[in-house]
Design a protein that fits this description.
The chain is of the alpha/beta class. It has one domain (2-10, 24-150): Rossmann fold, CATH 3.40.50. 41% of the residues lie in helices and 24% in strands. The chain is built from five helices and six strands, in the order αβαβαββαβαβ. Strands 4-3-2-1-5-6 form a six-stranded mixed β-sheet, sandwiched between helices. α1 crosses α2 (33-49) and α3 (66-74) packs parallel to α5 (123-139). The protein is globular. 34% of the residues are buried.
Length: 161
């Protein structure tokens, strides 16, 4: 199921982003292991195969949910591994980084916010934190970038019909 979610997210991202004429596409994810899988292992090579150049940043914390991200924003915690893949596809990992520092690192075209899979499809848990995160990102971003919500498909045993 995780691979299916990954392929679906990656397809939608490529379809929406790469239809635009840009020299370099910059994407920052504030996420967890789903953003790790989707961005760090596949996206750069898929973009390259389509003749696109990408810079990818991933604020990674395993199992991180939106409320966790909000708490870290409010306290400006250096709680993440900032994983950055440059235009040539070289990945570097910077430990003990804050969301604020990652937002300032590049003029990101897209910023993706990721809910943890165990809370996927639970509207109340998303809406508890998402408005704050969107407000914070908008306040700290360049005017041209867009915010994306990266949502893995709800797992049947966790989501009501």
């Amino acid at each position: 199921m995780k691979k299916l979610n990954l392929v679906f997210f990656t397809f939608l991202f490529i379809h929406n982003c790469f239809s635009q004429a840009q020299d370099t596409i910059r994407l920052l994810a504030i996420g967890n292991s789903f953003s790790e899988d989707a961005l760090e292992y596949y996206l750069h090579d898929l973009a390259k195969a389509d003749g696109k150049v990408m810079i990818i940043g991933n604020m990674y914390m395993a199992g991180a949910h939106l409320t966790f991200h909000v708490e870290n924003i409010k306290e400006n915690k250096n709680a993440y591994e900032y994983r950055k893949i440059n235009a040539e596809g070289v990945k570097k990992v910077y430990k003990n980084q804050s969301i604020a520092s990652a937002l300032k690192d590049e003029k990101w075209d897209y910023i993706s916010l990721q809910q943890v899979s165990s809370l996927s499809g639970k509207y109340d848990t998303i809406m508890k934190s998402l408005p704050f995160m969107i407000h914070y990102v908008k306040k700290n971003k360049s005017k041209k970038n867009k915010i994306a919500i990266s949502s893995n498909m709800g797992l049947p045993e966790r989501c009501p019909p």
